[in-house]
Structure formats: C-alpha cells, structure tokens
Amino acid sequence: MKQVLLKALNIIKAHIIHILQNSSNTIDPNKNHTLLSDDAYTLFYGRFRINAPKVKVLAEELEQRCTRNPEYEKTLSDCHECYANQRRTLLTSSVQTAIQDLAAKNERDMCTLVRSGCAFLLHLCQDEYQLFYQFFSKHSVYLDTMLSEFCNLLYDNLRSRIIHVIHLETLAELVTILKVEMIEEHVKNSVKELSTFETVCTQMLEDVQERLVYRTQVYIRNEILGYKPSPGDIAYPEKLEMMQL
User: Fold this and answer.
1) Counting beta carbons within 10 angstroms of the beta carbon of residue 49, is it exposed (0 to 12), middle (13 to 18) or buried (19 or more)?
2) What is the pLDDT of residue 239?
3) How far is Cα 144 from Cα 164, in angstroms, rounded to an integer?
4) Averages of pLDDT over each 10 residues, the chain, 245 residues
5) How many of the other CB atoms lie within 10 Å of CB of 161?
6) In the list 94, 113, 171, 229, which could disulfide-bond 106, CB 3.0-4.6 Å?
7) Where are the alpha helices (H) located in the chain, listed in sequence order?
8) How distant, in Å, are the alpha carbons of 4, 87, 139, 198 from that of 133?
9) Could you give the CA distance from residue 154 to residue 121 in angstroms, rounded to a whole number?
10) pTM higher than 0.85 for the full model?
11) Of 61, 120, 128, 121, residue with least CA distance to 90
C-alpha cells in the first residue's frame, strides 16, 4: 500500500514540477529583462501564473492530507522547493540589475537611493508573496528563504554605502525613511507579506543608527570638546560694540 502511495505522489510531484518548469520557460532567458521596465509585471508574473490553477488544485489535495502521512508533507515541500528555485532562477539576475541601476541613477543622493531601493524590494516581496499563494495555500520556508535572498542583495549594496556616510543630517533622514516610511507605514500594514523585508530593513536601520551614533561622537570630539576658538571668536565685548556702531 505504501509503494502505491509513493508512486502516486511521485506522479503528482512530477506533474507539478513539469508545470512550474513550463511556466518558467514562457519567459525568454536570452532577453535582457529588467524589473524596472514597464512590461516587467506582465512578463515576470502574468505569464508565469497562467498555469497556477492547475498546480493549486493538486497542491490543495496534498495540503489537506499533510497531517495524515508525512509523505504528503514531503511531496508538498519538494514542490515548494521547485517553485522557489524556478522563481529564483528567473529573478535573481534582474533583481541585481535593478538594484545596480537604481544605485547608478541615485549615486549622489543616498536618501533617494535608500527610499527607491526599499520601495522596489517592498513591492517585489508583496508581488512574490501574492504569486506564491496563487499556486499554493500553505506557507513555505522556501518562499521566506528566496525573499530573504532578494532583500539581502539590496542590503549588501546599501550597507557598503551607509558605512561611508559622514553627514549627520543624511543619517538622521535615513533613520526616518527606514523606521517611519518603510517599517511603520508599510510593513505594519502587511506583516505577513513583508516579514522578510522587515528583517532586512530592521538590520539596515540598526546599521544606520550605529553609524549615526559614531558620527555624532566624532562631531562632539572634534567640534565641541576639541574646539579651539580663534581670537575673533572671543573678541567680546568688542564685537557687540562694533555691531552698535
């Protein structure tokens, strides 16, 4: 009986994997697509989800039986892993290119770069989360891992820039962007969809705050504790008398 079950599950898994691979193949890998282009959503999401109903009807059968036998759970997990691998293969290069394009466009404006970069990843995470649930109803660690990898691409790019910011005003504004605009105004309204984005955004916020504390200490040491007034700075009451003339 177990052999019959395993054979049936393997057939279902093979069929789901075949559908997912075919969905990926509808997107031409030889074209230089970017997620910032106008047709990005249609290309990376519209085409891919055409066969979602075919997968979901099979996946729901597995999901309903996961508590009965661990083999159902394993089969479903294998399908989740295949799905994540297909999306990762399709998107990783495009995500990297999009982040690099944003960095080049906003090279001299760190605040705009962080705001636009986070907004890009925020929407990407939402779109990927919603797409996944068109294929499956049960959450998967493979989805979280994939989204975390995408978010870390932005984190790695921005962190290398954050550690070189010297202006206190810029660092203070970055704190506001990450804490208020991203976490409080966006993440808190979509906690499930943006859980992985929140993790990376929080780490980025901590990096900025650490940098802000350090630069504040440097400013206090150099500009306040180490301040050496010139004769003109302490020319009182002479300065006041000259102003009254």
Assistant:
1) middle
2) 67
3) 30
4) 88 96 78 69 87 95 92 96 96 93 95 97 96 96 98 96 96 98 94 95 98 95 79 70 65
5) 13
6) 113
7) 2-25, 40-41, 52-65, 70-105, 110-135, 141-162, 168-176, 195-219, 238-244
8) 29, 14, 8, 20
9) 8
10) yes
11) 128
